[in-house]
């Protein structure tokens, strides 16, 4: 029996991208509810968020692997938050050159060029904590078994009307 291999960087990037995309939609829906009391919870994002979040979290994963034994989690989350601001500003600045930047923080009190805002420091910090403790750590634990056969341990389960049947 072949041993299970860790997920490839591309597979992890994909999971991180989907996670970030989902969080962006949920955050904007919650923000719309809190600010405008909109019970429809319209969450929005851009397709650029897939690249932005996937790449950023993959880079934070590398930071986590290097820093986890060297500094306290709160210091790491502060570093991740600073990275997030740098990444958000950089990607926003590049996208703005093509009139493609999907966010504009100009209406916030502590914004810089409309691309980043200090009002999001606490949410970014909390997101960094969740990202490290749950998303990155669990994604790094995932394994891919290349030669898995359907007749393995799940063979005793039968599908009934699209549902797993357990006897």
UniProtKB/TrEMBL annotation:
Name the keywords, alphabetized: Membrane, Transmembrane, Transmembrane helix
InterPro entries in alphabetical order: CmpB_TMEM229
- Protein origin, superkingdom: Eukaryota
Biological processes annotated in GO: macrophage activation; response to bacterium
Bilayer disposition of the protein: Multi-pass membrane protein
One GO cellular component term noted in the UniProt record for this chain = membrane
Pfam families, A to Z: ABC_trans_CmpB
Where does the UniProt annotation locate this protein? Membrane
Q: What is its main location?
A: membrane
Membrane-spanning ranges: 12-31, 43-61, 73-95, 115-136
Hey, which family's this protein in? Belongs to the TMEM229 family.
Q: Which PANTHER family match?
A: TRANSMEMBRANE PROTEIN 229 FAMILY MEMBER, TRANSMEMBRANE PROTEIN 229B
Q: What is this protein called?
A: Transmembrane protein 229B
- Which species does this protein come from? Monodelphis domestica
Name the encoding gene, please. Answer: TMEM229B
């Amino acid at each position: 029996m072949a041993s299970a291999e860790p997920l490839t960087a591309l597979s992890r990037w994909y999971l991180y991208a989907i996670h970030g995309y989902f969080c962006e939609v949920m955050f904007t829906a919650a923000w719309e509810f809190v600010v405008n009391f909109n019970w429809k919870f319209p969450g929005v994002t851009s397709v650029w968020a897939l690249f932005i979040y996937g790449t950023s979290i993959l880079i934070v994963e590398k930071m986590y692997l290097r820093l986890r034994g060297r500094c306290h989690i709160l210091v790491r989350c502060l570093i991740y938050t600073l990275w997030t601001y740098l990444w958000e500003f950089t990607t926003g600045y590049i996208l703005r050159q093509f009139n493609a930047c999907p966010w504009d923080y100009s209406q916030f009190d502590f914004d810089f060029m409309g691309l980043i805002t200090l009002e999001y420091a606490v949410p970014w910090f909390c997101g960094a904590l969740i990202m490290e403790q749950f998303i990155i750590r669990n994604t790094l634990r995932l394994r891919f078994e290349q030669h898995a056969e359907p007749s393995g341990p799940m063979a005793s389960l039968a599908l009934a009307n699209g549902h797993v049947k357990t006897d």
